[in-house]
Design brief:
The protein is of the alpha/beta class. The protein folds into two domains: 231 residues, DHBP synthase; 121 residues, Threonylcarbamoyl-AMP synthase, C-terminal domain (Rossmann fold), CATH 3.40.50. The strands form two sheets. An eleven-stranded mixed β-sheet has the order 1-8-2-3-7-4-6-5-9-10-11, sandwiched between helices. The longest helix is centred in the C-terminal third of the chain and has 17 residues. The radius of gyration is 20 Å and the shape is globular. Bound molecules: adenosine monophosphate and magnesium ion. The site of adenosine monophosphate has 22 residues, from strand 6 and strand 10.
Length: 373
């Protein structure tokens, strides 16, 4: 298949191109498009054949549910069988925007779209190109991130091209995305609302709106005996091609540890990389030292993390170390993605200077067959 490319901005929507993209989607084709979080790989959410094509294009296991994107709150009634009051309160506070809510699904939504679950994940994005496309499609676009399974989510159209050229009918270039990590997912089908995936909308923001929400135990843990509700929560993904380790501890000790590890890697002939911050960048020496942003505003780190992981790949970096980040607020999303990218390889430097190292969970050793996307 030959992929068509179009470019536009949110203030200058190319309506003819959007109408054409909408027709592609209605005919069962696939279109990658920008949202405020990351680029999405869209198909008609109500067409089982489209969902099958999404899984095939991504190389993603088909039991991994897709998020249904809407552009009118009232359309929820068509795809959900029960809508609790808190859904509307959260929608009022955070939609359109980077938050996904899970409800019981109606029969209109095929099991192919929800990975066989009887629930459906719903999001109303704020990006104007995304909204125009959903409207042109007819209202329900299933869209996971527009990357090949296991790779970092795309924050630029060129990354969609790298992963999906020839696999989708069209890619819409809307420039660099604003947020850079995927939406916060909140499950409203449990007794207490539960965050299944952290994102830009933080636990603190949700707590303030609807009272204390739970956080799924697997979000910052390596593995869990319990079966995660969102598949992929326990698998390595967002992964760069090389080997990434997170080092946590006091700043100066972390830098000393990482520099020593880098020298050792260099001596073995590796190309090395570091993920740090504006505050610490001068401390490191490596083939590629990348500041992800400033600790004064961790949203800057979320914004650039996936781009950095892809750049390391492009630069042929095969051994990488990252500082750890504070897991409060948006930092929870940053650490969740970083830990997955690292396959949960974490070195901890304790107060007394002793060092412990996690052994990566078994299923993350090597390159697993099954990776979330
Ligand atoms: P994305 O790659 O952004 O499309 O993320 C899709 C993710 O949303 C899946 O991997 C799941 O983690 C989560 N998800 C989607 N639908 C559901 C659902 N019905 N129940 C639980 N998690 C879901
Ligand atoms: Mg994804």
């Amino acid at each position: 298949m030959v992929t068509e490319y179009v470019a536009m901005t949110e203030d200058r929507i190319d309506q003819a191109a959007i109408d054409h993209a909408g027709a592609i989607l209605r005919a069962g084709g696939l279109v990658a498009f920008p949202t405020e979080t990351v680029y999405g790989l869209g198909g008609d959410a109500l067409n089982p054949e489209s969902s099958r094509k999404i899984y095939a294009a991504k190389g993603r296991p088909s039991d991994n549910p897709l998020i249904v994107h809407i552009c009118r709150l009232e359309d929820t009634e068509k795809i959900a069988s029960f809508i609790p009051d808190i859904y509307y309160r959260l929608a009022e506070a955070f939609w359109p925007g980077p938050m996904t809510m899970i409800l019981r699904k109606s029969s209109l939504v095929p099991p192919e779209t929800t990975g066989g679950l009887d629930t459906v994940a719903i999001r109303f994005p704020v990006n104007k190109i995304a909204q125009a496309l959903i409207r042109a499609e007819g209202g329900f676009i299933a869209a996971p991130s527009a990357n090949r399974s296991g790779r970092p989510s795309p924050t630029l159209a060129q990354y969609c091209r790298e992963d999906l050229d020839g696999r989708v009918e069209m890619i819409i270039d809307g420039g660099q995305v604003g947020i850079g990590v995927e939406s916060t997912i909140v499950d409203l089908t449990e007794q207490r609302p539960t965050i299944l995936r952290p994102g830009y909308i933080t636990k603190e923001m949700l707590d303030r709106t609807i009272g204390e929400v739970d956080v799924d135990a697997t979000i910052l843990a390596g593995t869990s005996a319990q079966h995660p509700k969102a598949p992929g929560m326990k698998y390595r993904h967002y992964a760069p091609k090389g080997d990434l380790t997170i080092v946590e501890g006091r700043r100066d000790q972390v830098a000393a540890y990482i520099n020593a590890a880098l020298r050792e890697a260099e001596n073995k002939g590796h190309r090395t990389g570091v993920i740090c911050t504006d505050e610490t960048r001068a401390l490191y020496r490596a083939d590629s030292v990348k500041s992800a942003g400033t600790r004064r505003d961790e949203a800057t780190i979320a914004h650039d993390l996936f781009r950095i992981l892809r750049e390391f790949d492009d630069e042929g970096i095969d051994i990488m170390y990252s500082e750890n980040f504070d897991a409060a607020g948006i930092g929870m999303a940053v650490m969740n993605r970083l830990m997955k990218a690292a396959g949960h390889q974490i070195v901890t430097i304790h107060e007394d200077g002793s060092v412990t190292r996690t052994h990566p969970p078994k299923e993350t050793l090597g390159r697993p067959e099954y990776r979330e996307a």
